[in-house]
């Protein structure tokens, strides 16, 4: 039995899986509910799966990139569960890999571009082959859509070919494209959810970091603003 936690984006999602099948999944209907809802969703998903917590053998966490705050909530919760249930096999899956794997084997496409919203006018993106293998020249990057050279940066100046865009950042990218640009097409998944973490099952897609030392893949530092409230004397 595996517990799957997706906290990389605005939407919190939890699933329970067994033998390659999803037994239960709970996904928030509102955004930014991680801190208040994640442990409740875990309890609900386990209950709907008809099992108890001590029957869990694995915990799979979405590694990011994504929201700094929500990733920290997910990491802290995962560490707490691994301390309470020391027999859990802890592993992490790149959020972009999970999205690309769900969109793989798309006929007639050369590449998959998995995207997640970053800061305003930006997306996290990574290019994969049509079978969801990461391109050898493509790393996870923060794509600044206001930069006219962003297309060339995706594959280091190489031709993109026919590109399928998936993930929650696709709307921003669609708005940044010229309307006559037919090199990009758009498809699901359009949102991250816990059940997508099950698809990249082979060990080559998973990392197994030490629980105590684990830190999510933030990519960007936290966005901190100075308070406008009057300082206390």
Features of this protein?
single chain; alpha/beta; 233 residues; 22% helix
What does it look like?
- By secondary structure, the chain is of the alpha/beta class.
- Helices cover 22% and strands 24% of the residues.
- The protein has helices spanning 34-48, 68-84, 95-102, 150-154, 170-176, and strands at residues 2-6, 13-18, 21-27, 58-62, 89-93, 111-117, 122-129, 141-144, 163-166, 184-186, 206-207.
- Strands 3-2-1-4-5-11 form a 6-stranded mixed beta sheet.
- A hairpin with a 4-residue loop joins strand 6 (111-117) and strand 7 (122-129).
- Helix 1 (34-48) crosses helix 2.
- The longest helix is centred in the N-terminal third of the chain and has 17 residues, at 68-84.
- It is globular.
Helix share bin: 10-25%
- Identify the strand order in the major beta sheet: 3-2-1-4-5-11
Q: Based on DSSP secondary structure assignment, what is the total number of beta strands?
A: 11
Q: State the shape.
A: globular
Low-confidence stretches: none
List the helices and strands and how they pair.
Elements: E1 2-6, E2 13-18, E3 21-27, H1 34-48, E4 58-62, H2 68-84, E5 89-93, H3 95-102, E6 111-117, E7 122-129, E8 141-144, H4 150-154, E9 163-166, H5 170-176, E10 184-186, E11 206-207
Helix pairs in contact: 1-2
């Amino acid at each position: 039995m595996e517990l799957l936690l997706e906290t990389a984006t605005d939407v919190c999602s939890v699933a329970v899986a067994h033998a390659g099948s999803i037994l239960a999944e709970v996904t928030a209907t509102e955004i930014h509910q991680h801190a208040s809802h994640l442990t409740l969703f875990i309890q609900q998903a386990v209950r709907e799966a008809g099992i108890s917590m001590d029957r869990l053998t694995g915990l799979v966490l979405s590694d990011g990139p994504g929201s700094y705050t929500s990733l920290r909530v997910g990491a802290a919760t995962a560490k707490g569960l691994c301390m309470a249930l020391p027999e859990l096999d802890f592993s992490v899956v790149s959020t972009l890999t999970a999205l690309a794997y769900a969109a793989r084997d798309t006929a007639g496409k050369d590449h998959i571009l998995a995207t997640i919203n970053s800061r305003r006018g930006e997306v996290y993106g990574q290019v994969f082959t049509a079978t969801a293998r990461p391109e050898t020249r493509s790393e996870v990057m923060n794509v600044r859509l206001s930069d006219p050279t962003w297309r060339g940066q995706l594959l280091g100046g190489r031709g993109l070919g026919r590109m399928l865009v998936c993930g929650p950042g696709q709307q921003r990218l669609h708005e940044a494209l010229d309307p006559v640009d037919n090199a990009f097409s758009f498809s699901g998944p359009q949102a991250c959810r816990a059940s997508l973490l099950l698809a990249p099952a082979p060990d080559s897609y998973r990392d197994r970091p030490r629980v105590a030392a684990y830190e999510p893949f933030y990519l960007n530092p936290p966005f901190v603003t100075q308070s406008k409230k009057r300082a206390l004397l």
